Amino acid sequence: MSRGINTRCLHIEADEGKTEHFGSLSYPIYQTATYAHPGVGKSTGYDYSRLQNPTRAQLEKVVADLEGGIDAFALSTGMAAITLLFEIFRPGDHIISDADLYGGSIRLFDNVSKKNGIEFTFLDCSRNDPEKEIRPNTKAIYIETPTNPMMHVSDIRKTAEIAKKHGLLLIVDNTFLSPYFQNPLLLGADVVIHSGTKFLGGHNDTLAGFIVTNRPEISEKLRFLIKTTGAGLAPFDSWLLIRGIKTLGLRMERTSQNAALLAGWLKEQKIVKTVYYPGLSDHPGHEIMKSQARGFGSMITFTVDTQEHALRILEEVRMIKYAESLGGVETLITYPTTQTHADVPEEVRLKNGITPCTLRLSVGIEDGEDLVEELKSVFARCT
Predict the structure, then answer these.
(1) Which domain CATH number covers 113?
(2) Which of 10-24, 32-46, 167-181 is modeled with the greatest confidence?
(3) What mean pLDDT, rounded, does the chain reach?
(4) What is the pLDDT confidence band of residue 1, given thresholds at 50, 70 and 90?
(5) How many structural domains comprise the chain?
(6) Average pLDDT in the 31-39 region?
(7) Fewer beta carbons within 10 angstroms: which end of the chain, N or C?
(8) Are 311 and 362 part of one and the same domain?
(9) 171 and 260 both lie in a single domain
(10) So which residues are the catalytic ones?
(11) CA 16 to CA 362: how far, in whole Å?
């Protein structure tokens, strides 16, 4: 019988019954740069920590298992993960990408990937058919679902069918839902990306990124590239991620419950014009989300009636923190126009629906009623 995900967040089955590392329940931090060899041509299995480190290896086993992959790669940041992955492509390759992505991804594609000769077509993959954009040199489809910040939901199974029909890779950024709520590889994707800084770490205390794949040839390429480019996650940060993942399920359940409460409350407020949350029955992606995910997550985007109100809300919050990032135990509110998507050209932001009236909430584990009371107080001071 397969084990539940909460158990797998805590235990690697292959390690059970062993008392290695003196029986330590907390996996050790191997804070070393290099390793002694038993003799010429002999190795302990580890040679140099840029290539691999036991703490990082343990973390990668956990994440690969949670996503249903054969291999995972822990990187220094989420952006380092995307950067490493794009080293498998060559000048002249074409990528079909969702238009509404995290601003850092768009910045990377526009300023680095294009400079390296990779071509892009950006479209709303939740509404438009990527198959119509396939060219002879197309190599992959890249999506986020839900997207950051407008919460568009793409059908992973359907997109995977298109990718396989044409011999393309399907890459899915699964940061917003984590492997607790969604497993793109099991739905047909070839590669999953995570900003491990977010829900996997869960405590706003470290940076990390992950690539997970179920394709042996991709794993082989990435193992060579990670040792070559040198962006592997450091031992202490790897340990923080191992620790954070132990409570992933508890955090995801609590934060999604709070998000559902807040989304419903926000819909009733006069100054709120639109609430983008897939857990709401009127969200366009609600039914697709139900078919491919086990929960709706804790990210909410909403728009208010004026920019003045948006800025006032950011000034007035106290318990809720006005800060970039997401996925931690604390509730954060973000202003995409000047924070996460500041480097995205204004015309692209506006086309994607990101206006000066747009706000994004990453809902934490506080008591939901306290979050509602905080926003009630804030909104009262805005009107």
Answers:
(1) 3.40.640.10
(2) 167-181
(3) 96
(4) low
(5) 2
(6) 95
(7) N
(8) yes
(9) no
(10) 50, 102, 173, 198
(11) 36
The per-residue pLDDT for range 163-211, each reduced to its tens digit, is: 999 999 999 999 999 999 999 999 999 999 999 999 999 999 999 999 9
Asked whether residue 149 falls in the same domain as residue 198, the answer is: yes
Cα 302 to Cα 360: distance, rounded to the nearest angstrom: 6
Query: Whats the size of the chain, residue-wise?
Result: 383
CATH number for the domain including 326? Answer: 3.90.1150.10
- Domain end point (choices 213, 245, 277): 245
Exposed, middle or buried by CB within 10 Å (0-12, 13-18, 19+), for 274? Answer: middle
Is the pTM higher than 0.85? yes
Angle, CA 177 vertex, CA 299 and CA 98 arms, to 5°: 85
Render pLDDT for 305-330 as a digit per residue (tens, 0 to 9).
999 999 999 999 999 999 999 999 99
Mean pLDDT across 264-280: 98
**Shared domain check, 283 and 240:** no
Mark whether 218 and 314 lie in a shared domain. no
In this structure, the answer to whether residues 151 and 294 fall within a common structural domain is no
Do 179 and 193 lie in one domain? The reply is yes
CB 137 within 8 A of CB 119: yes
